[in-house]
Amino acid sequence: MTDRRPEPIPLAVLTGFLGAGKTTLLNRLLRDPALADAAVVINEAGEIGVDHLLVEHVADGVVALAGGCLCCSLRGDLINTLEDLLRARDNGRIPPFRRLAIETSGLADPVPILQTLTLHPYLAMRYRLAAVLAVVDPTTAPETMAAHPEAARQVAMADRVALSKLDLASPEDVERTTGLIRRLNPAAELLEAQDADASSLFAEASPRALDLTPLAEGHGAIRAVSLASEAPLTRASYDMFVDLLRSAHAPKLLRLKGLVKIAEDPRRPLVVQGVRHVFAEPRFLDSWPDGDARTRLVAIGEGLPADLLATLYAAFAGRVAPDRPDRAALLDNPLAPRGGGLLS
Ligand SMILES: Nc1nc2c(ncn2[C@@H]2O[C@H](COP(=O)(O)OP(=O)(O)OP(=O)(O)O)[C@@H](O)[C@H]2O)c(=O)[nH]1
Questions:
Q1: Can you tell me which atom of ligand 1 is nearest the CA of 51?
Q2: 34-50 residue pLDDT tens
Q3: Which CATH superfamily, name and number, covers 9-202?
Q4: Which atom number of ligand 1 is nearest to the Cα of residue 18?
Q5: Interval between CA 340 and ligand 1 midpoint (Å)
Q6: Is the CB of 51 under 6 A from ligand 1?
Q7: What is the CATH number of domain 222-332?
Protein backbone atom coordinates (compact mmCIF):
# COMPACT_ATOMS: atom_id res chain seq x y z
CA MET A 1 0.00 0.00 0.00
CA THR A 2 1.29 3.47 -0.83
CA ASP A 3 1.37 6.25 1.72
CA ARG A 4 -1.29 8.77 0.53
CA ARG A 5 -0.46 11.37 3.13
CA PRO A 6 0.07 14.75 1.43
CA GLU A 7 3.40 16.48 1.65
CA PRO A 8 3.39 18.91 4.58
CA ILE A 9 3.12 22.55 3.56
CA PRO A 10 6.08 24.70 4.60
CA LEU A 11 5.01 27.36 7.06
CA ALA A 12 6.98 30.46 7.97
CA VAL A 13 6.38 32.68 10.99
CA LEU A 14 7.21 36.36 10.53
CA THR A 15 7.51 38.07 13.88
CA GLY A 16 8.89 41.31 15.32
CA PHE A 17 7.72 44.06 17.66
CA LEU A 18 5.10 46.70 16.81
CA GLY A 19 6.18 48.76 13.85
CA ALA A 20 9.43 46.87 13.29
CA GLY A 21 8.76 46.55 9.55
CA LYS A 22 7.10 43.11 9.15
CA THR A 23 4.37 44.19 6.72
CA THR A 24 6.83 46.28 4.69
CA LEU A 25 9.08 43.26 4.31
CA LEU A 26 6.19 40.92 3.57
CA ASN A 27 4.86 43.26 0.88
CA ARG A 28 8.21 43.25 -0.83
CA LEU A 29 8.68 39.49 -0.59
CA LEU A 30 5.19 38.79 -1.93
CA ARG A 31 6.04 40.66 -5.12
CA ASP A 32 8.62 37.96 -5.82
CA PRO A 33 7.18 35.40 -8.28
CA ALA A 34 8.86 32.74 -6.13
CA LEU A 35 6.10 33.40 -3.56
CA ALA A 36 3.18 33.48 -5.99
CA ASP A 37 2.00 30.22 -4.44
CA ALA A 38 2.03 31.51 -0.84
CA ALA A 39 -1.00 32.15 1.37
CA VAL A 40 -0.71 34.61 4.22
CA VAL A 41 -2.35 34.79 7.64
CA ILE A 42 -2.06 38.13 9.37
CA ASN A 43 -2.78 38.58 13.05
CA GLU A 44 -3.80 42.11 13.84
CA ALA A 45 -3.95 43.84 17.19
CA GLY A 46 -7.15 45.84 17.60
CA GLU A 47 -10.75 44.96 16.98
CA ILE A 48 -10.70 46.64 13.63
CA GLY A 49 -7.96 45.10 11.55
CA VAL A 50 -6.03 47.28 9.15
CA ASP A 51 -2.82 45.36 8.51
CA HIS A 52 -4.31 43.14 5.84
CA LEU A 53 -5.43 46.26 3.97
CA LEU A 54 -1.81 47.31 3.81
CA VAL A 55 -0.67 44.05 2.23
CA GLU A 56 -0.85 44.70 -1.46
CA HIS A 57 -0.26 41.59 -3.45
CA VAL A 58 -2.13 38.48 -2.47
CA ALA A 59 -5.75 39.56 -2.32
CA ASP A 60 -7.16 36.03 -2.52
CA GLY A 61 -4.79 34.32 -0.18
CA VAL A 62 -4.74 36.72 2.77
CA VAL A 63 -6.65 35.87 5.91
CA ALA A 64 -6.85 38.48 8.63
CA LEU A 65 -7.26 37.48 12.25
CA ALA A 66 -8.28 40.64 14.06
CA GLY A 67 -9.38 41.34 17.58
CA GLY A 68 -6.64 39.96 19.73
CA CYS A 69 -3.31 38.32 19.76
CA LEU A 70 -2.52 34.89 18.38
CA CYS A 71 -0.53 34.01 21.42
CA CYS A 72 -3.43 34.73 23.79
CA SER A 73 -7.10 34.77 22.96
CA LEU A 74 -6.83 33.85 19.31
CA ARG A 75 -5.03 30.54 19.56
CA GLY A 76 -8.24 28.63 18.84
CA ASP A 77 -8.86 30.94 15.92
CA LEU A 78 -5.42 30.20 14.54
CA ILE A 79 -6.17 26.49 14.63
CA ASN A 80 -9.53 27.04 12.93
CA THR A 81 -8.00 29.31 10.31
CA LEU A 82 -5.21 26.89 9.47
CA GLU A 83 -7.74 24.03 9.25
CA ASP A 84 -10.15 26.12 7.15
CA LEU A 85 -7.37 27.03 4.76
CA LEU A 86 -6.53 23.34 4.30
CA ARG A 87 -10.17 22.45 3.74
CA ALA A 88 -10.63 25.23 1.19
CA ARG A 89 -7.44 24.19 -0.56
CA ASP A 90 -8.35 20.49 -0.57
CA ASN A 91 -11.84 21.30 -1.95
CA GLY A 92 -10.45 23.57 -4.64
CA ARG A 93 -12.22 26.65 -3.23
CA ILE A 94 -8.94 28.57 -3.13
CA PRO A 95 -5.79 28.17 -5.24
CA PRO A 96 -3.60 25.31 -4.03
CA PHE A 97 -1.14 27.36 -2.02
CA ARG A 98 2.12 25.56 -1.47
CA ARG A 99 3.44 27.64 1.41
CA LEU A 100 1.96 29.63 4.19
CA ALA A 101 3.34 32.68 5.98
CA ILE A 102 1.93 33.86 9.30
CA GLU A 103 2.62 37.47 10.27
CA THR A 104 2.14 37.66 14.02
CA SER A 105 0.93 40.75 15.81
CA GLY A 106 3.76 42.91 17.08
CA LEU A 107 2.88 41.95 20.64
CA ALA A 108 2.86 38.20 20.17
CA ASP A 109 4.95 35.84 22.24
CA PRO A 110 5.88 33.38 19.49
CA VAL A 111 6.08 30.37 21.82
CA PRO A 112 2.35 29.53 22.05
CA ILE A 113 2.10 29.90 18.29
CA LEU A 114 4.97 27.50 17.71
CA GLN A 115 3.44 25.13 20.25
CA THR A 116 0.13 25.21 18.44
CA LEU A 117 1.87 24.38 15.20
CA THR A 118 4.00 21.57 16.53
CA LEU A 119 1.67 19.92 19.04
CA HIS A 120 -1.63 19.89 17.16
CA PRO A 121 -1.88 16.40 15.64
CA TYR A 122 -3.56 17.34 12.37
CA LEU A 123 -1.82 20.66 11.79
CA ALA A 124 1.55 19.14 12.57
CA MET A 125 0.86 16.51 9.91
CA ARG A 126 -0.22 18.99 7.21
CA TYR A 127 2.14 21.90 7.93
CA ARG A 128 5.86 21.83 8.50
CA LEU A 129 7.42 24.75 10.36
CA ALA A 130 10.09 25.98 7.95
CA ALA A 131 11.52 28.96 9.79
CA VAL A 132 10.87 31.87 12.11
CA LEU A 133 12.03 35.25 10.82
CA ALA A 134 12.12 38.16 13.27
CA VAL A 135 12.30 41.76 12.04
CA VAL A 136 14.11 44.13 14.38
CA ASP A 137 14.22 47.93 14.13
CA PRO A 138 17.63 49.00 15.49
CA THR A 139 16.43 52.57 16.10
CA THR A 140 14.13 51.35 18.89
CA ALA A 141 15.21 47.79 19.68
CA PRO A 142 17.34 48.36 22.80
CA GLU A 143 14.55 50.18 24.68
CA THR A 144 11.85 47.98 23.25
CA MET A 145 13.56 44.79 24.35
CA ALA A 146 14.26 46.22 27.79
CA ALA A 147 10.64 47.25 28.29
CA HIS A 148 8.77 44.43 26.52
CA PRO A 149 9.74 40.81 27.12
CA GLU A 150 7.77 39.77 24.02
CA ALA A 151 10.23 41.67 21.83
CA ALA A 152 13.19 39.81 23.29
CA ARG A 153 11.37 36.48 22.96
CA GLN A 154 10.65 37.14 19.32
CA VAL A 155 14.39 37.46 18.72
CA ALA A 156 15.25 34.53 20.97
CA MET A 157 12.91 32.20 19.05
CA ALA A 158 13.99 33.24 15.57
CA ASP A 159 16.03 31.25 13.08
CA ARG A 160 16.83 34.46 11.23
CA VAL A 161 16.80 38.07 12.34
CA ALA A 162 16.43 40.84 9.77
CA LEU A 163 17.51 44.37 10.68
CA SER A 164 15.12 46.95 9.23
CA LYS A 165 15.31 50.74 8.86
CA LEU A 166 19.04 50.83 8.26
CA ASP A 167 18.48 54.12 6.44
CA LEU A 168 17.38 55.64 9.77
CA ALA A 169 19.69 53.81 12.16
CA SER A 170 23.04 55.16 13.30
CA PRO A 171 26.10 52.85 13.34
CA GLU A 172 25.77 52.87 17.17
CA ASP A 173 22.12 51.74 16.94
CA VAL A 174 23.17 48.87 14.71
CA GLU A 175 26.08 47.88 16.93
CA ARG A 176 24.00 47.90 20.13
CA THR A 177 21.17 45.99 18.53
CA THR A 178 23.45 43.44 16.92
CA GLY A 179 25.12 42.88 20.29
CA LEU A 180 21.75 42.31 21.94
CA ILE A 181 20.64 39.88 19.26
CA ARG A 182 23.89 37.96 19.50
CA ARG A 183 23.45 37.64 23.25
CA LEU A 184 19.84 36.55 23.03
CA ASN A 185 20.27 34.18 20.15
CA PRO A 186 23.85 33.46 19.08
CA ALA A 187 22.74 30.83 16.56
CA ALA A 188 20.40 33.07 14.58
CA GLU A 189 21.39 34.08 11.09
CA LEU A 190 21.59 37.87 10.96
CA LEU A 191 20.68 39.73 7.79
CA GLU A 192 19.55 43.12 6.52
CA ALA A 193 15.83 43.32 5.82
CA GLN A 194 16.55 44.93 2.47
CA ASP A 195 18.44 41.77 1.42
CA ALA A 196 15.81 39.30 2.65
CA ASP A 197 14.21 37.13 -0.01
CA ALA A 198 11.80 34.22 -0.21
CA SER A 199 14.39 31.87 1.23
CA SER A 200 14.90 34.09 4.29
CA LEU A 201 11.29 33.32 5.11
CA PHE A 202 11.02 29.71 3.99
CA ALA A 203 14.46 28.09 3.82
CA GLU A 204 14.48 25.24 6.30
CA ALA A 205 16.30 26.19 9.45
CA SER A 206 18.38 23.76 11.42
CA PRO A 207 16.50 22.15 14.30
CA ARG A 208 16.53 24.36 17.34
CA ALA A 209 16.33 23.82 21.04
CA LEU A 210 13.28 25.78 22.09
CA ASP A 211 12.51 26.97 25.54
CA LEU A 212 8.81 26.36 25.21
CA THR A 213 7.69 28.15 28.33
CA PRO A 214 5.19 30.82 27.38
CA LEU A 215 5.45 34.18 29.08
CA ALA A 216 3.49 34.14 32.29
CA GLU A 217 1.25 37.06 31.63
CA GLY A 218 -0.23 38.93 28.72
CA HIS A 219 0.94 42.27 27.50
CA GLY A 220 0.77 44.35 30.65
CA ALA A 221 -1.01 47.63 30.21
CA ILE A 222 -0.56 47.63 26.43
CA ARG A 223 -3.86 47.84 24.64
CA ALA A 224 -5.12 48.44 21.16
CA VAL A 225 -7.88 50.98 20.59
CA SER A 226 -9.63 51.11 17.26
CA LEU A 227 -11.91 53.42 15.36
CA ALA A 228 -14.11 53.11 12.28
CA SER A 229 -15.87 56.23 11.03
CA GLU A 230 -17.81 57.34 7.98
CA ALA A 231 -16.83 60.94 8.66
CA PRO A 232 -13.96 62.41 6.62
CA LEU A 233 -11.31 64.78 7.93
CA THR A 234 -10.13 67.73 5.93
CA ARG A 235 -6.45 67.45 5.14
CA ALA A 236 -5.74 70.29 7.58
CA SER A 237 -7.71 68.63 10.38
CA TYR A 238 -5.94 65.35 9.68
CA ASP A 239 -2.59 67.04 10.29
CA MET A 240 -3.86 68.55 13.53
CA PHE A 241 -5.40 65.26 14.63
CA VAL A 242 -2.09 63.44 14.17
CA ASP A 243 -0.08 66.25 15.75
CA LEU A 244 -2.28 66.28 18.79
CA LEU A 245 -2.23 62.52 19.14
CA ARG A 246 1.52 62.53 18.85
CA SER A 247 2.21 65.42 21.19
CA ALA A 248 -0.29 64.40 23.85
CA HIS A 249 0.35 60.65 23.84
CA ALA A 250 3.80 60.10 22.25
CA PRO A 251 5.53 58.41 25.18
CA LYS A 252 2.73 55.87 25.51
CA LEU A 253 1.80 55.53 21.89
CA LEU A 254 3.76 52.63 20.41
CA ARG A 255 1.93 52.44 17.10
CA LEU A 256 -0.71 54.23 15.05
CA LYS A 257 -1.80 52.92 11.67
CA GLY A 258 -4.72 52.82 9.35
CA LEU A 259 -6.55 54.46 6.49
CA VAL A 260 -8.19 57.88 6.69
CA LYS A 261 -10.96 59.34 4.54
CA ILE A 262 -9.97 62.84 3.46
CA ALA A 263 -12.77 65.27 2.63
CA GLU A 264 -10.97 66.76 -0.37
CA ASP A 265 -10.48 63.33 -2.00
CA PRO A 266 -12.77 60.78 -0.36
CA ARG A 267 -12.26 58.12 -3.04
CA ARG A 268 -8.62 57.62 -2.10
CA PRO A 269 -7.61 56.68 1.46
CA LEU A 270 -4.64 58.28 3.16
CA VAL A 271 -2.32 55.73 4.77
CA VAL A 272 -1.25 56.66 8.30
CA GLN A 273 1.83 54.99 9.71
CA GLY A 274 3.41 55.96 13.02
CA VAL A 275 5.88 54.10 15.20
CA ARG A 276 6.43 55.94 18.48
CA HIS A 277 7.23 59.54 17.53
CA VAL A 278 8.27 58.69 13.96
CA PHE A 279 5.48 59.19 11.44
CA ALA A 280 5.90 58.31 7.81
CA GLU A 281 4.95 60.91 5.20
CA PRO A 282 1.26 60.10 4.59
CA ARG A 283 0.49 58.74 1.12
CA PHE A 284 -2.71 58.16 -0.80
CA LEU A 285 -3.65 54.73 -2.13
CA ASP A 286 -5.40 54.68 -5.52
CA SER A 287 -8.57 53.24 -4.02
CA TRP A 288 -10.00 51.70 -0.85
CA PRO A 289 -8.48 48.21 -0.74
CA ASP A 290 -11.62 46.42 0.44
CA GLY A 291 -14.27 48.75 -0.97
CA ASP A 292 -15.14 49.94 2.54
CA ALA A 293 -14.60 53.71 2.36
CA ARG A 294 -14.51 54.40 6.09
CA THR A 295 -11.65 55.69 8.14
CA ARG A 296 -10.16 52.84 10.12
CA LEU A 297 -7.46 53.44 12.67
CA VAL A 298 -5.70 51.40 15.32
CA ALA A 299 -3.57 52.88 18.08
CA ILE A 300 -1.54 50.60 20.31
CA GLY A 301 0.11 51.78 23.47
CA GLU A 302 0.37 51.71 27.21
CA GLY A 303 -2.53 53.01 29.21
CA LEU A 304 -4.35 54.56 26.26
CA PRO A 305 -7.91 55.59 27.12
CA ALA A 306 -10.43 53.31 25.41
CA ASP A 307 -12.17 56.23 23.73
CA LEU A 308 -8.98 58.05 22.73
CA LEU A 309 -9.36 57.73 18.96
CA ALA A 310 -13.12 58.06 18.92
CA THR A 311 -13.12 61.29 20.93
CA LEU A 312 -10.25 62.94 19.17
CA TYR A 313 -11.33 61.91 15.69
CA ALA A 314 -14.89 63.04 16.28
CA ALA A 315 -13.61 66.39 17.44
CA PHE A 316 -11.60 66.96 14.27
CA ALA A 317 -14.29 65.52 12.01
CA GLY A 318 -16.78 67.93 13.51
CA ARG A 319 -18.85 65.36 15.31
CA VAL A 320 -18.35 66.36 18.90
CA ALA A 321 -21.00 65.08 21.20
CA PRO A 322 -22.87 68.08 22.65
CA ASP A 323 -22.28 67.06 26.24
CA ARG A 324 -18.55 66.46 26.01
CA PRO A 325 -16.09 68.80 27.70
CA ASP A 326 -14.07 68.69 24.42
CA ARG A 327 -16.76 70.77 22.79
CA ALA A 328 -16.03 73.76 24.96
CA ALA A 329 -12.30 73.29 24.46
CA LEU A 330 -12.73 73.18 20.71
CA LEU A 331 -15.01 76.17 20.62
CA ASP A 332 -12.35 78.10 22.49
CA ASN A 333 -9.57 76.84 20.23
CA PRO A 334 -8.72 79.36 17.51
CA LEU A 335 -6.86 76.64 15.55
CA ALA A 336 -9.87 74.36 15.26
CA PRO A 337 -11.04 74.05 11.67
CA ARG A 338 -14.18 76.03 10.88
CA GLY A 339 -16.86 75.40 8.35
CA GLY A 340 -17.91 72.05 6.94
CA GLY A 341 -20.14 71.45 9.89
CA LEU A 342 -17.65 71.56 12.73
CA LEU A 343 -19.60 71.90 15.92
CA SER A 344 -22.61 72.94 13.94
N1 LIG B 1 12.67 54.58 6.80
C2 LIG B 1 12.22 53.31 6.83
N3 LIG B 1 10.97 53.07 7.25
C4 LIG B 1 10.55 51.79 7.29
C5 LIG B 1 11.37 50.69 6.91
N6 LIG B 1 10.67 49.53 7.09
C7 LIG B 1 9.45 49.91 7.57
N8 LIG B 1 9.37 51.26 7.68
C9 LIG B 1 8.23 52.07 8.15
O10 LIG B 1 7.94 51.72 9.49
C11 LIG B 1 6.52 51.78 9.70
C12 LIG B 1 6.04 50.43 10.23
O13 LIG B 1 6.28 49.45 9.25
P14 LIG B 1 5.39 48.12 9.14
O15 LIG B 1 5.99 47.30 8.03
O16 LIG B 1 3.96 48.45 9.04
O17 LIG B 1 5.69 47.46 10.54
P18 LIG B 1 4.99 46.17 11.21
O19 LIG B 1 6.07 45.45 11.94
O20 LIG B 1 4.24 45.40 10.18
O21 LIG B 1 4.01 46.88 12.21
P22 LIG B 1 2.84 46.18 13.12
O23 LIG B 1 2.06 45.30 12.18
O24 LIG B 1 2.04 47.34 13.61
O25 LIG B 1 3.51 45.47 14.21
C26 LIG B 1 5.91 52.15 8.36
O27 LIG B 1 5.73 53.55 8.34
C28 LIG B 1 6.98 51.75 7.35
O29 LIG B 1 6.92 52.50 6.16
C30 LIG B 1 12.72 50.98 6.46
O31 LIG B 1 13.53 50.10 6.13
N32 LIG B 1 13.07 52.30 6.45
A1: 23
A2: 888 888 888 766 555 55
A3: P-loop containing nucleotide triphosphate hydrolases (3.40.50.300)
A4: 25
A5: 34
A6: yes
A7: 3.30.1220.10
